[in-house]
Amino acid sequence: NAGVTQTPKFQVLKTGQSMTLQCAQDMNHEYMSWYRQDPGMGLRLIHYSVGAGITDQGEVPNGYNVSRSTTEDFPLRLLSAAPSQTSVYFCASSYLGQRYEQYFGPGTRLTVT
Amino acid sequence: RKEVEQDPGPFNVPEGATVAFNCTYSNSASQSFFWYRQDCRKEPKLLMSVYSSGNEDGRFTAQLNRASQYISLLIRDSKLSDSATYLCVVKGNNNDMRFGAGTRLTVKP
Does B95 contact A43 at a Cβ distance shorter than 8 Å? Predict the structure, then answer.
């Protein structure tokens, strides 16, 4: 059981470049989300989805787009990378419902120069 | 004010010690509560859920005080392998999870 997978593991971008971070889960979870983790700030929610075709903004959505065409995949797009987007990005998934915890992917370390 | 606040530590304790972490949350409508553990440069992993009546899992005990909007985690008989960052997590009505910045624990021989 692969769980939550993310690619790439590491990425270096120049300011203004665009790219897509990939996330997939094989647990048939309805809920998927993207977080960024910066030193001293904990994980902050970027975007989330409660099912295919449904997405919504989290705490820090600016500069990022998402789509959810299938239950399994939830890619995160950086439209025009900025140095402030240098961070570690985690994708997570869970069943819907209050008592269910989220499972995290291994993360993508992104540096924007 | 942050939605979820934790003492950042670091906590440096000897093996065998008992250590307690505290967490407060601001949204009184929060529904579910969790403690996650995160090792250096790794993803967070669930340590335990926190139930209203309090719950225990081996050496770990979690408590919730809804009136004070306060969560705690107690680790007894600390092991070297307990060294990690402990994240307090609060789940809202929209299934979104809000994380504290984490408390770093180092257990020394």
Answer: no
